[in-house]
Write a structure and sequence with these properties.
Blueprint (H helix, E strand, L loop, with lengths): L2 H22 L9 H34 L12 H25 L1 H7 L25 H12 L2 H19 L4 H8 L4 H7 L6 H8 L17 H5 L23 H6 L15 E3 L2 E3 L1
Antiparallel strand pairs: 1-2
Helix pairs in contact: 1-6, 2-5, 3-4, 3-5, 3-6, 5-6
């Protein structure tokens, strides 16, 4: 079974099961702008599979062969777990800085902003993005190199760990706070874990506005320790009530999906929801 097929099956199972549970449990009941969100999610899925995937995989594969013409399978002798650790940490580090820059640079923010205008946080938001966003993801660029060099399976595991954590932190289920409330004796464990691994608590804060929010921080997908080390961490230990952006409804759907191909006048007054200097103001 190929690496691509394994990842596809795992993604379908994780996303399909999680999103179905959210729907059946009523987490999406009463959610606002479901049709708009659904359209964005479908567009994100299609752009991932039909646009970004083939383009990036084809180009990165070409670069791998061109740069390392005599090294096909050249790293296949490397220990599985050592290869996994290097790939995983590298991808997480690269994604942290990509994500951080999208909140600090206006032209990048407008590509990423679509992911933040969702007013209901759930697993569907994983695919709510501008159609060009996926082309920037380090995970997509690393894959062809890893497979060509013979460390495809460690790469698959690294991507699946990242995807599972990403899904678990976007879900509407606040499983982390529920566990902490049910097992107060485990609080010392959580106090350490929350500084190392991204939990719903910190990522929900990243998507929220108002009390308990932290739009300009909590950038890591999995290794929250990068936020701690680089001074962008905020751990609220609370549930957030509002998600999205204060001016999120004023953005035109065509710009949200297709910027920079489609550009609209900025409707925000006072430069809200766009980078100013070093951070997004909301």
């Amino acid at each position: 079974m190929s690496e691509q097929l394994i990842m596809l099956i795992a993604v379908v199972l994780i996303f399909g099961l999680g999103f179905t549970l959210e729907i059946l449990s009523g987490k999406l009941k009463g959610a606002k702008r479901l049709k708009r969100d659904g359209g964005f999610i479908i567009a994100g899925l299609l752009s991932h599979g039909l646009l970004a995937g083939p383009i990036v995989a084809g180009f990165a594969g070409y670069l791998a062969v061109s740069w390392f013409p005599d090294h096909a399978g050249g790293l296949s002798h490397v220990n599985f777990w050592a290869a996994f650790a290097v790939i995983f940490v590298f991808q997480e580090f690269a994604h942290y800085w990509l994500h951080r820059l999208t909140h600090e640079k206006e032209w990048l923010w407008k590509i990423h902003r679509t992911h933040h205008t969702a007013e209901n946080l759930n697993m569907g938001v994983l695919y709510r993005y501008n159609i060009f966003w996926t082309m920037m993801l380090p995970q997509l660029w690393v894959g062809p190199f890893a497979i060509y060099l013979g460390v495809g399976m460690p790469y698959v595991l690294a991507v699946m760990v990242t995807y599972f954590v990403n899904a678990s932190t976007h879900t509407a289920f606040r499983w982390d706070l529920w566990l902490r409330e049910k097992m107060p004796w485990s609080e010392p464990f959580w106090r350490v874990l929350e500084k190392v691994i991204t939990l719903p608590d910190t990522h929900h804060a990243h998507h929220a506005w108002g009390p308990g929010s932290h739009l300009n921080g909590n950038y890591a997908i999995t290794l929250f320790i990068f936020d701690v080390l680089f001074g962008t961490a905020k751990i609220p230990n609370r549930r957030q009530k509002r998600f999205g952006l204060p001016k999120g409804r004023s953005y035109h759907w065509t710009e949200e999906l297709f910027w920079p191909m489609v550009r609209k006048p900025d409707p925000s007054s006072g430069n809200q929801n766009k980078p100013s200097g070093k951070k997004v103001t909301a």
